[in-house]
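Subject line: Sequence and fold of a protein, written as structure tokens
Area: Proteins and the way their chains fold up in space.
Start of record: The labelled sequence and token lines come straight after this line.
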Amino acid sequence: MLLLIAVLSVLSSIINGDKLNAKSFPQNFLFGTTSSAYQIEGSWNADGKFPNIWDAATHDNPDKISDKSNADVACDSYKRYKLDVEALKNLNIDVYKFSLSMSRLLPSGRMNHKGLEFYNKLIDELVANKIQPMVTLFHWDTPDELQKMGGWTNPFMVNYFVEYARMAFETFGDRVKYWITFNDPFNFCLRSTTDENFPPYDVVDNRLLYLCSNVILRAHGNVYRLYNTTFKPNQNGFLSIALETPWFEPGSSKAVDIEAVESLLTYTLGQFADPIFKSGQYPTRMEEDVSKHSLAEGYLISRLLKFTGEEIARVKKSADFFALNFNTEMKVFGKKYDESDPPSLYKDAGVNPVFKSHWNTSSTSWINATPDSFRKMLKKTKENYGNVPIYVTECGFPDDGISEDYDRIQFHQTHLSALLDSIHDDNVTIIGYNVRSLLDCFEWTEGYTIKYGLYQVNIDKEDKSRIPKLSSVAYKEIVRNRKLPAEPTKKP
């Protein structure tokens, strides 16, 4: 997430009565929804689990969270995972994307059998209800013990992550066909190294941003090779990495602003997608920009490390499908920085991104519902990386948690219509779409102030019951019909 504007926008009505795409979704198209371990599990210190960076941060610095909350209990899914599966079964969806907690499975580096037991039970329950698990190995919750060693800026994490993945493949791989190594590594690296309001808080150094991406790319590449050589022959699964970027529009018709769009997309999506889907190396433009600025800033070498020949071979072509998260659109302006300005990604790219204030906005200012931009992003992904199958692993709309969530319904209807345009008119191969998210839950630095869920969860009540919103009914109808309604659902 690119939280670049702090001011919340007022939720406005959307859609001009446009017709939705009337064509059907492909026969094998997968519909799903999402969660992540820290956001829903609770039981933060139960059954041998050790703290992660969010446990430490929310306990020590609650003021950094919008409502001073934490996910110590959250949706209590560690104890109530069967309620989650019941909600999923009610939706009649194909896929549930969730993440494993490294702190629960490997507290202090040692295998925790209670953690293994929990995820085995969850996966068994999903499979018994004909729901395919899509398992994310890492979704932003670094074990606090590892963060004290530098976390994802420490090259040690490459080998540690490989062994963690090996354990997951050995334990769960007989029932899991879709694996995601990292969820949105760009924003995790950006925020964890440059944002003082994002854990671990005490590490705010723009020079660490590219070191984080380097370590994560190497870890991903090594895990892909491990899976392909050791586990795929018997398990027959598919592995990728979920990449997120906004769609960017130029701030004006000036050439410098048009160029800024391509430049920033190179740094957000290309930083990870180019090495994985193209060359095994960072984009040439990015290497040249960062090297030039690094030398001008007085560094002896570039802040962007180059991969060795062996690393290139491991990272190149290390995904079976393109896992794309999409949420919003932003305007971008070209900007010339002074070399005395501190190092930053935006300085390297020569851009100034701003929230786009027209069309529809959600209850948080960085989400801007733009189905046309979604279609452009899908088409651009095909243009840049070939016709690799795309799975939209996360797409969502936040509000204040109302049950009659017509804006969320319209968001997904119009975005799925744009997705059908991409399939049938742009010839983009798209294999699935996950709604963010199954439940209202802890939303990182926003706490419980915004909600994405198809289901409400009363966090303050003991039973933590899952209450379906109107959007869950609308999504279920889409899944059942494998078609969209003729028009977006209107508010009565």
